[in-house]
Structure formats: C-alpha cells, structure tokens
Amino acid sequence: MPIEFGVKDFIDILLVAFLLYYTYKLMKASGSINVFIGILVFILIWLVVSQILEMRLLGSIFDKLVSVGVLALIVLFQDEIRHFLLTLGSHQRTSILARFLSGSKKEQMDKSDIVPIVLACLNMSKQRIGALIVVEKNVPLYDTIRTGEIIDANVNQRLIENIFFKNSPLHDGAMVISKKRIKAAGCILPVSHNLDIPKELGLRHRAAMGISQITDAHAVIVSEETGFISVAYHGQFYLRLSAEELESILTKED
Ligand SMILES: Nc1ncnc2c1ncn2[C@@H]1O[C@H](COP(=O)(O)OP(=O)(O)OP(=O)(O)O)[C@@H](O)[C@H]1O
C-alpha cells in the first residue's frame, strides 16, 4: 500500500517537533531534563515492546502505565504546564483578548514610574541593601500579592528605599509593583529549582528567576552581598546592570 504524504502530514510533524522542542526547553529551564530523557526512553521501550516485538503481557502492563502516566505527568509538571499556558496567554496578541475577558485595562509603566525604581535600586546598590522588586506586565500577580502586606501607594523612590531598609518590618521578601502602584511588600515568590543557576546566586536570585519563569514580570534584584543590580525576565538573568541598562530593560515592550 503506497504511503500518502501531504502538506497536512508535514505540518503535523512540524508541530510535534515544535511541541517536543518546547517541552525540552521548559524542562531544561526547570532543571528536570533527566525526567524528559527518562520519558523519551520509556516511550521508546514501550513502542519496541508493544508495536515491534508485540509482547502482549509486558505490552499491556506498559499500556496501563502510560494511561496512568499522563495523569502523573500533569501532577509532576504542573508548574511547567502552567508556565506554558501563561506564556500563551501573556503573548502580546492574546493579551488583548485576556484583558478584554478579565475587563482590566492595560496600564503601561511610563518613564515617571520607572525612574523612581531605577534610582532606588542605584541607591540601595551603593549602600549594599538587598532588594527584590517584581514589576507586573500582562500576567496578573494576584497570587503573589496575597502572600505579602498590601501597601497600594504611588511608585516613589523614598518609599521603595524605606521598605527595603534593613530594620524595616517589610524588608524581607519581594515588593510587587502592579498597574503603576506599589501593591505589596514582603511577598513570597516561588523559588526556581533550575540547576544551571550559578551557585554564588542565592535565594533572592532564585526567587526572582522563579517568578520570571511562570509569569512575564520583570524581577529586579539588588544584591546585598555585592551591590550588583540584576533582572530576571522570561527565565533569563541580565546580570550586573548599570542604571541605564536597567531603565532600558524595564521600558522595553515584549
Ligand atoms: N522565596 C522568596 N520570596 C521572596 N523573597 C525571598 C525568597 N527567598 C529569599 N528571599 C529574600 O532573599 C533574602 C535572602 O537572600 P540570599 O542572601 O539567600 O540571596 P542572594 O541571592 O545571595 O542575595 P544577596 O546577593 O543579596 O545575598 C531573604 O532575606 C529574603 O528577603
């Protein structure tokens, strides 16, 4: 029987390849690449046992494992799946639809909101005051805001510095800036388990990376140890930034 191969099959293969590549990238970023390889090896053995060798007993055991395995994978990779869906939902084209459905207006940060953040970071960097500031973009940060103390104030350089001052009760944890307002401080962020993060970067950096992997927020870090200013964005670090570089990253549209 001749095998028909049309444009539809080509697109089908291309989409599967893209899906596999994206899964690989997500798992690499979250440090679970070995699980990805394990799954591939399992699928390969399953195909050989049940399709090529046609071993019925072992094949039926593997079939059962595969049907339960899909559920297990959803539980195991809920963060990665969430990130994938968030990335889809926070893409510029789909965010218009998301905003329409949620009824919230887009409030773009302008220079007058970004400059106080940059100046505060610069001052804290000089004084070696540790800070972690998450700037919301398209994906709402309600869950993160709920873990901290609500402030709801205008973005103000002195207020930012005051909050992160060592003896301030809210200096621990992250500040969240949303819709041109300092919404909350002392917030707890999800810590990234990525094994590729350099050992010298501690929990503050890992927490910034964590939130940048599951949302499209900018997470600005001022290191207490070195005074360096860095940003985590879309699962990538931009380290040792100057004030100008920080301003340009925060101003940049997706
Ligand atoms: N999950 C988290 N969410 C929010 N803030 C966190 C989280 N984990 C740690 N932090 C903040 O980071 C601080 C600890 O920073 P740590 O010294 O471990 O990190 P670091 O990346 O080495 O930063 P630094 O260079 O400033 O020392 C905590 O005091 C806390 O304020």
TrEMBL record:
Q: Which terms does the UniProt entry file under GO BP?
A: cAMP biosynthetic process
Its domain of life reads Bacteria
Q: Catalysed reaction per UniProt? A: 2 ATP = 3',3'-c-di-AMP + 2 diphosphate
Q: Where are the transmembrane segments?
A: 6-24, 31-49
| Pfam families membership | CdaA_N, DAC
What Enzyme Commission number does this protein have?
Answer: 2.7.7.85
Extract the GO molecular function terms from the UniProt entry.
Answer: adenylate cyclase activity; ATP binding; diadenylate cyclase activity
Tell me which PROSITE patterns the record gives: DAC
Q: Which UniProt keywords apply?
A: ATP-binding, Cell membrane, Membrane, Nucleotide-binding, Nucleotidyltransferase, Transferase, Transmembrane, Transmembrane helix
Do you know which NCBIfam families this protein is assigned to?
diadenylate cyclase CdaA
Family stated for the protein in its record:
Belongs to the adenylate cyclase family. DacA/CdaA subfamily.
> PANTHER family in the record, alphabetically?
DIADENYLATE CYCLASE
What this protein is called in its record is Diadenylate cyclase
Which species is the source of this protein?
Bacteroides luti
The record lists the lineage as: Bacteria, Pseudomonadati, Bacteroidota, Bacteroidia, Bacteroidales
What gene is this protein translated from?
A: dacA
